[in-house]
Structure formats: structure tokens, C-alpha cells
Specification:
Strand content: 5-15%
Number of helices: 9
Shape: globular
Number of domains: 2
Radius of gyration: 34 Å
Strand order of the largest sheet: 1-2-4-3
Structural class: mainly alpha
Number of strands: 4
CATH class of the largest domain: Alpha Beta
């Protein structure tokens, strides 16, 4: 009777060991099935490795797209030149009301001379202005050089709605001749397409232009007084001076200062 008892105990032990063995083996098999060999740490959710890689890549591409997205009409971005009589675009409607009124009056009178005013850039959102500044830095290699062409969002007259860029050479020439009668003045010698409202100009004429925006007290606390700056401007004026990013604002014949008969600085800023 002793032997049968031992046999039953042994059988129970063997059965327990067998169950434990199959449980362990089953767990290992399931783990390998769920964890792709090329994904460290496994994939507890059982998602295909290709799906994980693709989804992560798509997320990164979407992030990049958001950062580099082209500004829209709501930012003042224009896909084509428009007139100042457009009432649907923020680039026009967000301009200072007095500036817009003066521009519309001047545009109406210029039409009698066969000249049409086209707006190439008016009001801009801070986001749009920052993008233009980043493009200018990439083009010129430094923030200092870029600042000669593009202001920051905090200082730009475009962001405040106080400035416009005129696109056609004949319109720029017409405004440079008659603009003071409407209080419309060129502000920077290196940006002859840029006009702002100076109401006093109708009686006393437009104020002297700054060589470039870095001389404008609104852009920089202290005016620059280095003769080398004027010499640099003169060298730029000898050829094409319009930056690459701005050329879409102008017609081919308006690429240089000489094409628009704009005077070039002849003396150091400190002697003006």
C-alpha cells in the first residue's frame, strides 16, 4: 500500500510541474509575439512597428509644417497686388483710417494722370512680420544687416497699420512728386516704395528721409552717426539694392534706386 501512495504523490507533483512549465512557455511565446524584435523594450500595445514609426514621423512633419506655414490673408499676406479701394482684405482694412483715406484720395487723383496705385504690402500681423525678419536674417546672415530692411514686430509701422509699400515704379514716382500734398511721405532712402502719413507735410513738405530703418529713432534708441554707414548705402545704391525677399513687391523696372530717380545719400548722416 505504501508504493501506490508514493505513486499518487509523485503523479500530483509531476502534474503541477507540467502545468508550471506550460504556463511559463506560454507567457514567453506571447511576449515574443507582441514585442517586435527591432523595437527596444517591446511594444505592449501590439501596434505594428511600421505604424509606430510612420505616425511619429508624421507628427514631426506636422510640427514642422505648423512652424513654416505661409501666412494667410488674415495676417496681411497678399498673393497678388491689390488697390487701396479693396474692402475685403485685412492688409487694407487694418490700415490706419487717416492713412487709408489719404492714399485713396491720392490714388483717385493719380488715375487722372493714368497712374494706378497698387498695394504690395500694407498691414501685417506680428507673425507675418517675424517671418519676414527671419527670412531677411537668412538672406543677409545677421540680424544687424537684416534690420536695414525689416523691422521687428514690436517696431514695424506695418504691424501698427501706419505704413504701406507701393508696387509700381510710376506710382512711386508720382507719390514722391505729389505725395506731400496728401501728407504721404517716403521715410527711408533705401526703401523708396515705403510710404507713411505725415500730415504736416501738406504745409511744410516731407521730412528728410533716413538712410535706412536703423537710423530711425523708432527702431533704435540712438541714431547712428557713422560715415561708413552712408558709404555702404552709396555702394548699395550703385546697383540692385532691393533684397531678394522684397522683390516680389516690385515690378522689374523698380529694382534699383536709379530706376526710380531717387536721390542717393551724398554725405554722412551726422552732417545732415
Amino acid at each position: 500500500m505504501i508504493i501506490p501512495n508514493l505513486t499518487r504523490k509523485a503523479a500530483r507533483s509531476i502534474g503541477f510541474v507540467a502545468l508550471l512549465f506550460f504556463a511559463v512557455v506560454g507567457t514567453v511565446v506571447v511576449a515574443f509575439a507582441l514585442a517586435p524584435a527591432d523595437v527596444p523594450g517591446g511594444n505592449p500595445l501590439g501596434i505594428d512597428d511600421g505604424m509606430i514609426s510612420t505616425r511619429q514621423t508624421d507628427d514631426r512633419e506636422n510640427d514642422k509644417s505648423d512652424l513654416s506655414a505661409t501666412p494667410g490673408e488674415e495676417d496681411g499676406y497678399l498673393t497678388e497686388v491689390v488697390t487701396f479701394f479693396n474692402d475685403d482684405l485685412p492688409a487694407v482694412t487694418n490700415l490706419d483710417p487717416e492713412l487709408l483715406a489719404a492714399l485713396r484720395q491720392a490714388a483717385a487723383d493719380a488715375e487722372d494722370d493714368g497712374v494706378v496705385f497698387y498695394l504690395t504690402s500694407g498691414w501685417r500681423s506680428p507673425r507675418y512680420q517675424n517671418q519676414l525678419l527671419q527670412e531677411a536674417v537668412a538672406t543677409y546672415g545677421s540680424e544687424e544687416e537684416a534690420s536695414r530692411w525689416v523691422a521687428t514686430a514690436n517696431t514695424s509701422a506695418h504691424v501698427s497699420g501706419d505704413a504701406v509699400d507701393i508696387g509700381a515704379a510710376d506710382a512711386i514716382e508720382w507719390l514722391s512728386t505729389y505725395g506731400a500734398d496728401y501728407g504721404l511721405c517716403q521715410i527711408y532712402e533705401n526703401e523708396p516704395w515705403h510710404f507713411e502719413l505725415r500730415p504736416e507735410a501738406s504745409t511744410s513738405g516731407c521730412p528728410a528721409m533716413y538712410p535706412d530703418p536703423t537710423f530711425d529713432p523708432r527702431m533704435q534708441p540712438e541714431a547712428r552717426d557713422d560715415p561708413r554707414d552712408s558709404q555702404m548705402l552709396i555702394r548699395k545704391a550703385e546697383g540692385t539694392i532691393v533684397p531678394v525677399w522684397a522683390r516680389r513687391f516690385l515690378t522689374q523696372d523698380a529694382y534699383s534706386l536709379r530706376a526710380m530717380n531717387v536721390s542717393v545719400l551724398k554725405e554722412a548722416p551726422g552732417t545732415r
